[in-house]
Amino acid sequence: MPQFHKLLTLKELPKGSMKHADVSGISLAIYNVNDKIYATTDICSHHQCLLTGGILSDTTVECPCHGGKFDVTTGAALALPSVIPIKTYQTRIINQDIEVEV
Fold it and tell me: Which residue, of 11, 93, 97, 100, is most buried by count of CB atoms within 10 Å of its CB?
């Protein structure tokens, strides 16, 4: 059964930034887009690269390996060579702590 895990605080994830986190054996990317928090798998669906090594621009993350792009709000693949969406995860903020449901 999925449960929420505390990963970061809001102070650790400034607006417009992203960070890597591991929880329950899952590699996650946590994003702060205009003070809204999103979470996806941190592994590109095209090639096994960490998305957090790439560039976050508004709601789009670009993979550093081959330039594939994903919408961090939905996981949708937006640019070739990526065609398979990435998994997204539910987030919440409790007392300035960012929690992700895994």
Answer: 100
CA dist 68 and 4 (Å) reads 29
DSSP state of 85: P
Q: What is the pLDDT of residues 35-68, one digit of tens each?
A: 999 999 999 999 889 999 999 999 999 999 999 9
**12 neighbors 101 (Cβ within 8 angstroms):** no
Residue 27 in contact with residue 43, Cβ under 8 Å? Answer: yes
CA 96 to chain centre: 18
How many angstroms separate the CA atoms of 51 and 102, rounded? 18
Judge if pTM exceeds 0.70.
yes
Q: Where are the beta strands (DSSP E) in 2-102?
A: 4-9, 18-23, 26-33, 36-41, 55-57, 60-62, 69-71, 77-79, 88-89, 91-94, 97-101
CA atoms within 13 A on the CB side of 89: 25
